[in-house]
Amino acid sequence: MNRIVEATAELISRHGLSATTLDDVVAASGTSKGQVFHYFPGGKDELLLAVAQYEADRVHAGMDERMPELSSWSAWSQWRDQLVGEYDIQGNDCPMTTLVVDLHRAGPGARALIAETAARLQSRIRTGIHQMQAKGLVGAHVDADAIAHSLVAGIHGATLLQLATGTDSHIGSVIDTAIEQLKSTASQRTPVHPT
Fold first, then answer.
1. For residue 125, what pLDDT band results from cuts at 50, 70 and 90?
2. Number of Cβ atoms within 10 Å of the Cβ of 24
3. pLDDT single digits (tens) 30-58
């Protein structure tokens, strides 16, 4: 079963969902159509949901293994460099890109996995901002939720631009801009309005 899921994921990341056929999956996995339907009796939708889970698990494993706790500026810089480096290595094989670009079409189960994956990254960023606020490194008035949402959207939009254009500056620029904006808030005070 794992061989079928991994082969399907690789085909989708290389060629896209619409260009991946069952015959391609059978050839790439070294299995038969009977084996595919044995493991995935629900057919294509069930297989694609398993692929979406596989890709989501890859994203979660990367976060757990390599994403630092964002409680210092050096940690933010480390995370920025790690993301840029990973994309340079992964390119089209970026699991989050595969999820967002292709597997969102695999039905509500896949979309729920994408939402959960994005929410998990947003939670880590939000927690980091709260820790930085507690240290006085980020202004207390900063809306950590809003920054986390926009940063996740910016990062994933940047990966799509990098994929489409072949340039490698977008992801780093998104995070650098967020870091500079957050740093600038440390000296700002929430305005006091007369009552």
1. very high
2. 16
3. 999 999 999 999 888 899 899 999 988 98
DSSP state of 91: G
CA distance 108 to 19: 21
Judge residue 94's burial from the number of C-beta atoms within 10 Å of its C-beta, 0-12 exposed, 13-18 middle, 19 or more buried: buried
Q: How far does CA 5 lie from the centroid of its chain?
A: 19
CATH number of 48-184: 1.10.357.10
Helix then strand then coil, % of the chain, to nearest 5: 75, 0, 25
Residue closest to 63 by CA, chosen among 15, 115, 124, 9: 124
Length of the chain: 195
pLDDT digits (tens, 9 = 90+) for 152-189: 999 888 888 877 787 777 888 999 999 999 999 987 65
Which residues 6+ apart lie within 8 Å of 124 measured at CB? Answer: 63, 67, 70
